[in-house]
Amino acid sequence: MKKLISIIILISIAAVSAQAKFGMQMRLRSEMQNLNSTDADKQVYDRQVDVRLRPDISYTVNDYLSVKAVFEIGDIQYGSEGGARDTDGKNLETKNIFIDIKPTKNHTFRLGLMPYKDAHSMIVDTDLAGILWMGQFEKYNVEFGWFAANDKDEEYMSQETYSFGTSLIGLNQMFTMNKYIKLGVSNLFVMNREEYLPGVNRDYVSVFTAPRIVLDFGKFNFDAQFIHNNNFADYDEVEDNPLYTDQPHDPDRTGLGLSVKSKFEMDSKTTFRANILFRGCYENWENYEAYKSFYDTGLEILNEDANGITFHNPMNTFTSSNGHQLGIVVPSVFVDWKYKENIVFTGGFGFVMNDQSYDKRTIWGSNNAYEALDNVVNDDMFLAWELDFKAKVTLYDNIAFLPYIAFLVPTDNFAYNTIYNPDTDTYDRDTNFIDDNDPDTINEPATDMQMKIGATVKYNF
Q1: Of 36, 136, 160, 433, which has fewest CB within 10 angstroms of its CB?
Q2: Which residues contact 437 (CB under 8 A, 6 or more apart)?
Q3: Contact at 8 Å (CB) between 180 and 216?
Q4: Angstrom distance (rounded) from CA 250 to CA 164
């Protein structure tokens, strides 16, 4: 509470100056999600409400120097861990705080804790501390930054000092060929060192390269980003360590990803949109893994960045089938219809599938690895489809009201990484009880149809 009072006092003092600007973003969400909506006898609900407030203050010293701070109160979530009780705890944090230095009109150096992302939020979309240069030229824009993602201090081992932590180097570029075509590329270099075992260090490097093309022909817009990711790991033994016998099996890996977002304005009232997300995996342990993505598919359940509360998000659970890596594909289509200037209705449809088949029956073996019980392979890669109905109502220019209802209908493959346990009448990942001759222990879908209904209110000024 004292921190909040201090922030209010600071904002009040700064607001006296004409060079200070105060803003705020507020989000209120209420939602009910039913995880087995067609089972009337065993209904499983999630009822949640949350609120988030982000006040911000920016102060312009002169044409060359400005400062901005963004605070966050929340997310304060009701409906979990005892309903609305015990929600008055410590929930104030510093979201961003940075200084912008502009030596010239087209060049800015940003220092501090800042938001950073690639164009599609496929690689990274988070807050990072570091330094970022943003340059604007006639047809070329560039962002180049170094970030300290985390620091785990130094450790003195065997008469040597080792530094542990993660550093990032980010580079975003965009070139405007003409008024119709833009070409760009995003790069992220992740460098990490950690202690794998006492006296054994693991050095890890992940390199993301993401070319991008944007086509804008008035009524038709097309934006695609392809991602190639290389991962390298090396283990360093410190002196003669009895715990270290051989480098663990950690081969170099390659991952591929693709995001396509398109839009076609048929007339002044109707717009069609089509998106596709692809996170590939061609060999075991070689699936695409983002550093910290926050991707928006446009759907409400199969989404990392939905309008509602993303509490049960099945999109990220399909990358592994009992130890076997699988990729996912999420295509989606939408129709936006402008009923009035401030009211838009949206209908959406999408589905999720794996990019390859998988062994349907596996068991945990004595060598601490999943072993196939037989050669049963499920060739049906389709997992579930989703149907959405949404609206966006804009009130008083600054308030957006977003009601929605979504249905997710899974197939028998939806819960391939859960096994039905007849002893406990539950689904879990523990496969030790599997009986190869007992059909009751085969994979069964852990959920029936999911239904999600709710509303979000966003207020900005």
Answers
A1: 160
A2: none
A3: yes
A4: 19
